[in-house]
Fold this protein.
Amino acid sequence: MNHLSGNAAQAWAGSATGVLDPMAAGSTDTLLFQRCTWCGTAMYHRLLCPVCQGGDLVTERSAGIGTVRHASVLHRNSPAARNASLIEMAEGFVLRGRVMGPPVGVHTGDRVRLSTAKDPVRGEPLFQLLDEPAYRTWH
């Protein structure tokens, strides 16, 4: 069994490497993510890298452009149906967010742009469609 000495435990507990600082962006319209310095993996709100388990993460700013990888229409805990989507950002990380507009109008593969990094009600990022929805046929 390994035990940390008092000095080692105190030094480890005081390090904030990789922890997102919401004030670093200076705006609610900025989406911050982390990148592992060991393997280069991009991730959203993690303490350790999911690939190499490294803890040396640097905070970067996203360009805010992504692609819908999964879209769902939710009917619970709200007076009206709402969209909940998994968005793959251009930098390579995936996050959960909401695409504005009619919930049934959001589909896998749609390109989106960050509208605001934090929805005032639910606290999740809000996106808007980049391209007008094309005519879709039934499959």
In short: The longest strand covers residues 65-74. Residues 1-16, 22-26 have pLDDT under 50 and may be disordered. Strands lie at 32-36, 42-43, 57-61, 65-74, 82-89, 94-99, 111-116, 126-129.
